[in-house]
Write a structure and sequence with these properties.
The protein folds into four domains: 26 residues; 58 residues, no CATH class; 79 residues, no CATH class; 98 residues, Nuclear Transport Factor 2, Chain: A. The chain contains seven helices and 16 strands.
C-alpha cells in the first residue's frame, strides 16, 4: 500500500514539474546570443539581431587594444562601443575604409553613428570621432576630416557643389588635399583651406592657387574668350580683370611665355606671356593685336597683374 501511495505521489510531482517547465519555456522570450550583451547587445537586437543584416556573431565581445571600448564582429559587419560614443555598427566598404585608417585607434576614432543613407539617398556615411567616411556607388568609400571636412560641410556636404569625396586626404607639398566630384580642397598651415572648384571654363578651376604662369595666362584668355567673370577674376588682379571684361574678345593664338630682358617693371616676377590676335580676325582687331600679359607669383600662385594691348 505504501509503495502504491509513494508511486502516485512521485508521478504527480513529476507531472507538475513537467508542466511548470513547459509553462516557463513557453513564456520565456527568445534569448540573444550569450556572447552579445550590454550596449552592444542592445544595439544588435535593435538592428534585428541574427535575422538582421549583421547576421550571427563570429566573435565574443572583446576589449579594444587601447582599452577604451569593446566590439563584436558579425558576419555582416561590426558593432563598436565606448562610454564616450555609445554603441554603433559599421559595415561594408565604409568599414573597410575605416579599418584601412587604423580602426578606432586611427585618426577617425570610434563611430558616432550607424551607417546612414545620405538625405538624397545617393550614398551613405558613418560619422566618427575624428571625421567621416562617405560612400556612393560611383565614388566608393573615402574618409574626410579636419578643416577640409568643415569647409566641405559649409558647401552643403555631398548635396552641394562638390558632391561626394573621390579620395581620402593626402599629402601635397606644404599641406593636404582631398578631391571631390566637383573640385578639390587643399589645406596648408599658412593659408588654411583653399577651395578649387569647377568653373564654366574647362580645365580652369576657380579659384586655383597653384597655377603656373602658362596656366594663369591660358585660363585668363579662355575666360576672356568665354566672358567668364569668375575665371578672369580668379587669374588676374582686379584692374586687369575689369579691363579685359570691358574689352571685346577676338580669337587668339598663344605665343608662349618668357622672362624678357629687361624685366617687366610692373610685374614682380618678370614673366611675360603673349597672345596674338591675327590681322584677319575681324573688325574687333583689324590690324592685329598682341596681348602681353605680365605675370606675378604670390604664395605659389601665378596671377596676371598687368596687361598691354599692342597693335
Amino acid at each position: 500500500m505504501k509503495n502504491s501511495v509513494r508511486a502516485a505521489v512521485t508521478a504527480t510531482a513529476t507531472a507538475v514539474a513537467a508542466a511548470t517547465v513547459v509553462a516557463v519555456t513557453a513564456a520565456a522570450p527568445a534569448q540573444a546570443d550569450p556572447r552579445v550583451g550590454g550596449p552592444i547587445g542592445a544595439r544588435y537586437d535593435a538592428l534585428g539581431g541574427a535575422a538582421g543584416f549583421l547576421g550571427d556573431p563570429v566573435t565574443g565581445e572583446s576589449r579594444t587594444p587601447d582599452g577604451r571600448g569593446s566590439y563584436v564582429h558579425f558576419r555582416g559587419g561590426s558593432i563598436y562601443s565606448s562610454p564616450a560614443t555609445g554603441a554603433h555598427e559599421v559595415h561594408g566598404l565604409i568599414r573597410e575604409e575605416w579599418a584601412a585608417h587604423g580602426w578606432e585607434a586611427g585618426l577617425l576614432g570610434f563611430p558616432l553613428t550607424d551607417e546612414t543613407p545620405t538625405p538624397n539617398r545617393a550614398g551613405a556615411y558613418n560619422h566618427f570621432q575624428g571625421g567621416s567616411v562617405y560612400w556612393s556607388p560611383s565614388t566608393g568609400a573615402h574618409e574626410v576630416h579636419g578643416a577640409i571636412r568643415a569647409t566641405w560641410g559649409a558647401y552643403g556636404w555631398e548635396a552641394g557643389t562638390f558632391g561626394f569625396p573621390v579620395s581620402g586626404e593626402y599629402d601635397i607639398p606644404g599641406g593636404k588635399r582631398t578631391d571631390f566630384q566637383g573640385g578639390s580642397m587643399q589645406w596648408s598651415p599658412a593659408r588654411g583651406v583653399t577651395v578649387m572648384g569647377d568653373s564654366d571654363v574647362a580645365g580652369c578651376p576657380a579659384p586655383f592657387n597653384a597655377a603656373t604662369p602658362e596656366q594663369a595666362a591660358g585660363c585668363l584668355v579662355r575666360g576672356w574668350e568665354q566672358r567668364s567673370a569668375e575665371v578672369v577674376s580668379t587669374y588676374a588682379v582686379d584692374a586687369v580683370a575689369g579691363e579685359l571684361l570691358a574689352t571685346p574678345y577676338a580669337p587668339t593664338t598663344f605665343d608662349g611665355c618668357s622672362r624678357p630682358t629687361p624685366a617687366i617693371t610692373a610685374t614682380s616676377a618678370g614673366i611675360e606671356c603673349v597672345y596674338h590676335v591675327p590681322q584677319d580676325s575681324g573688325a574687333a582687331a583689324p590690324h592685329g593685336v598682341d596681348v602681353h600679359l605680365g605675370i606675378g607669383v604670390y604664395d605659389g600662385a601665378a596671377v596676371v597683374e598687368d596687361v598691354e594691348f599692342i597693335g
